[in-house]
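Quick review question:
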């Protein structure tokens, strides 16, 4: 691990925008292609993918080699997956389903060592395989990003108590789960979903906490809209959707040419 300054965290602390993407496929080739594509950070999905811990660590190594900051969305708000993710040497964790202050404090306890938290001590890649534990301790206090995922209407209703904490660098909306929690999965045009997002933006401005959004299906117009709305932690697309969309468009062109021949 190179123990670089976390420029994503630094940007968020200065209320600057940072742009990344998402990794779902358990492929180092996919990660290398994405890391060469201009994103500032990449998020490895440990919740909704079949990526193993071993593969995650290899992915983190590839990203760091290209100067891209590696983040991991852990599988759940639990001490074991959080410490496993951090021990890979990633620069930030996204914690799913933060719905109240209790959930947030549980996550913080899992991220930090004593006396600030209760994180178990392991000697893995992050700690220089046992040779740089003191260096890691000094580095991680200033450089680990903690992103709370807001993806349920309960979290929207409890935003004041969540955002009052100084321990998180930003939050990020999980659009599909949020829409599902109000009864309309994937229907982002429902007034209930729009009202939830409007409340999220309002309360986040009150606490001056950077907002985030995952634009799952790449859409430049939506990205521009989120930038205009002052979202700062922006995740654009997913590796498998980029691949599926490109293949589908190419197949459609081929089938059109076949029909004309």
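Suggested answer, residue by residue:
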């Amino acid at each position: 691990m190179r123990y670089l300054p976390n420029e994503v965290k630094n940007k968020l602390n200065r209320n600057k925008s940072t742009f990344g993407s998402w990794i779902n496929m358990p492929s180092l080739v996919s990660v290398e292609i994405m890391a060469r594509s201009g994103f500032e950070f990449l998020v490895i999905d440990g919740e909704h993918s079949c990526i193993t811990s071993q593969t995650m660590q290899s992915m983190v190594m590839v990203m760091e080699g290209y100067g891209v900051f590696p983040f991991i969305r852990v599988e759940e708000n639990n001490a074991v997956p959080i410490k496993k993710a951090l021990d890979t040497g990633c620069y930030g964790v996204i914690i799913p389903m933060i719905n109240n202050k209790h959930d947030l404090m549980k996550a913080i306890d899992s991220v930090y060592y004593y006396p600030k938290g209760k994180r178990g001590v392991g000697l893995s890649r992050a700690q220089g395989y046992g040779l740089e534990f003191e260096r890691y301790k000094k580095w991680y206090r200033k450089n680990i990003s903690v992103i709370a995922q807001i993806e349920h209407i309960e979290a929207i209703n409890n935003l004041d108590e969540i955002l009052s904490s100084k321990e998180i660098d930003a939050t990020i909306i999980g659009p599909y789960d949020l829409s599902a929690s109000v009864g309309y999965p994937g229907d982002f045009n429902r007034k209930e979903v729009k009202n939830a997002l409007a409340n999220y933006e309002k309360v986040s401005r009150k606490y001056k906490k950077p907002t985030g959004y995952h634009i799952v299906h790449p859409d430049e117009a939506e990205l521009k809209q989120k930038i205009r709305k002052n979202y700062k932690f922006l995740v654009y697309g997913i590796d498998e959707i980029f691949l599926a969309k490109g293949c589908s468009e190419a197949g459609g062109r081929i089938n059109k040419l076949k029909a004309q021949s």
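Why it works: Strands lie at 18-23, 41-45, 69-73, 92-95, 145-150, 170-173, 212-215, 233-236. The two ends are 55 Å apart (CA to CA).
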